[in-house]
Each structure stands twice: as C-alpha cells, then as structure tokens.
Fold this protein.
Amino acid sequence: MTMRDQLQQLLADLHMGGMARILDAEMDRAEREGCPLPEVLHRLLSEEAGARREKALANRLTRARLPWRWTLETFPFERQPGVDRGQIMTLAGLEFLKRNDNLLLIGPPGTGKTGIALGLLREACLNGYPGRFYNAQALLDELYASLADRTTTKLITRLARLTPLVVDELGYLTLKPEQINAFFRLMDQRYNRVCTIVTTNLEPDAWYELFNKKPLVDALLDRFNHHCVTIRIQGPSLRTPAAPAKIAERSPNAHQAAPASKSPRKRR
C-alpha cells in the first residue's frame, strides 16, 4: 500500500471527506510546484472545514423539517400590501433571535404568515441556529403521545433547546387537557431562553377559548409577550392567483374590440 493509499485510509477512518477529496490533487501540486508543507496543510484543512460546514448546514435544514422550500427572497411582497418588507428583512438579520425575542404573526388564512415564518427559520438554519418547524396540532399530538411511554420530560427538554421553534397555525385545534398542560410546560421552559415563532389567525384574547384554562393562558401570554414582536397582516390571500399583467393594462373599451378575422376554410 502506497503512502497515498495509507493517507486516504486514515482520512476515511477519521471521516475527513473534505481532505480526502482533494488529497491527490494537492500532493500532485506539491510535487510539481514544491509547495511548502504549511501551505498544503492549510488548503487541506480549509477544504475539510468547508465540507463540515456544508454537512452541518444540510443536517440543520433536514432537522428543521421545512415543509416547503420558501425563502424571504421569493416571498411575493408586491402581492401582499399588508406586509412591511423592510420590517421582515430587518428580522432576517436575526437580532431578535440573539435577544431571545418571540415573534407572533397574526392574520387570516393565506396572507403569508407561514411563508414568513419559514423564510426566517431558513435564515436561522443558514446562520447556525438549530430550529424546527411544527404544525401546531402535530406538536400537541407528539406531546400527547409522549405521555404514553413517559418520555414527555425528555421531549420537552429537547424542544426547549430549539431556536427558533416555529408553531404554525395555532388556531381552532382539537385539544385534550393533557396536551394543554404539556404545551404550557414547554413554553415555560423556553421562556426568556430561546425564540418561538407562532403563526395564528386568532388574536391573543381568543386563546382563552382555545385553551379553556384562564390561569394558564394568563401565564402563557405574560411570558410570551414579555419579549415579543407582533405582526398583524391584513391583506389579500396569496392563494388567489394573481391577475395577468395584460388584463390590468387593457383599456376600459378593450372588450369591445372585434376579434381578428380568420381565413375561411376551403370547401371540398
């Protein structure tokens, strides 16, 4: 086995795929150009560091469970006058995550709440934050299922470390008392430690009817709103197809124009 083969084997054993990928090329270059050893090592280690960053990012995006590949760059701000683009792009700087502030997005269905939340979650993942997306009902169901095998404390401890945790569509849910209690335990552990992003079509006052436990809702709102950015979106549904530009540009009398004549068919 040659020295190169031994090096490749060592790199494989150490899971250094980045260095292994360019080892032969760098050794050929060193032999050809007489590169100093520190320079060769720097290039090898830089490649390995880059490969590990890419792998870590891919793992964060996988664990985030993003249901759609939405980004803030592709969000249709021009179609949603109820959203302040400047405010959202400022949030994309993620200073609110560093402050452990929460984010509450309130608005009717289809107004872009989930799209904004997903865009911010993706930005967080790109910048090294371990976030996660949950549909609200799925989160509450997972908490309820953990009661059966007594893993609720372990699950809440894991969820309490995620930042941001996106809870999407906190609205008209089917809830059991045990789910409500577990959810409040989770939110209490996250309080003032990490960021939670909630999208909902309900104003906070309506949460009393949703959870049906006034003392717990009082405590939840007190903690959640302590450090919170609230954005209310009043605008059209983005699920409605946009009007074609040609229609918008037609003159009022355009519908009166005669259709273009067609060449008569030849009779056989």
